Amino acid sequence: MGLSLENKPLGGVIHATIELMRHLINVALPCRCLQCGIKVAAQNQLCPSCWGALNFITDPVCAGCGLPFDYDPGTESYCGLCHGRDWAFTRARSVLRYDEASRELILAFKHADRLDLTPLLTQWLAQGGSQVVSGADMIVPVPLHRRRLFHRRYNQSALLAQGVAQLITLEYQPHLLQRQRHTPSQGGLNMRQRDLNMRGAFKVSQKAQFRLRGKIVVLVDDVFTTGATVEACAKALRRAGAKEVRVLCLARVIRPQAMAQ
Q1: Tell me: the pLDDT tens digits for 157-173?
Q2: Quick one: residue 26, left, alpha or beta (phi over 0 = left, psi -120 to 50 = alpha)?
Q3: What is the CATH number of domain 54-260?
Q4: CA-to-CA distance for 214 and 217, rounded, in angstroms?
Q5: N or C end of the chain: smaller count of CB under 10 Å?
Q6: Spatial separation of the C-alpha atoms in residues 250 and 122, rounded to whole Å
Q7: Domain ranges of the chain
């Protein structure tokens, strides 16, 4: 008897067809590590070697900015940076240490059109930032100025924020926060210079402010360095009526305190 699809439900036929196509693609194009390119068992994964090189941030961390501690100072402990600052955001958390291993992935995602990294990176963000997103009302990305967006063609922070919002079913607001001033690169600037560079760079339009009143906002960025960018964004969101701003970043720069002054 020949194979017949006449009596199969349409959904079953579609599912079987998709699975067959996926199998054929995997045979023709073997799954490869997103970083080094060697063969792996599944799509959108890293090989054991590349995975093992990554340094994920776990407790204990600063209750404010999320800086990882070398020892456990107890619950609700703050780092020296947070003792000297009154942040506009209530807390910030990052998933990875920004080091040689994570830098390669992040720079490829940010500057080399490696959008195939998006599903894996957003999965890490959603899992590592579960405490930050819990109870929040919406997710907002750190925006790019239109001039930089034109040259880069996409906003990496918006892709991350959108991915997390879809994974946890949270309201995504990509245009609520606007970058009203094109700022020079933050590279090579110390903490004070970064703060000055970001001052007044972001705003929420008056028409959009009603969306923020009394809301808990999760602000998403790719890398937390000194906190100048997310702080400027948080101030703009709070001025526009947000009840609370929490920060979720893919990676965190870890360096001696003297270098961040």
Answers
A1: 999 999 999 999 999 99
A2: alpha
A3: 3.40.50.2020
A4: 10
A5: N
A6: 8
A7: 9-42, 54-260
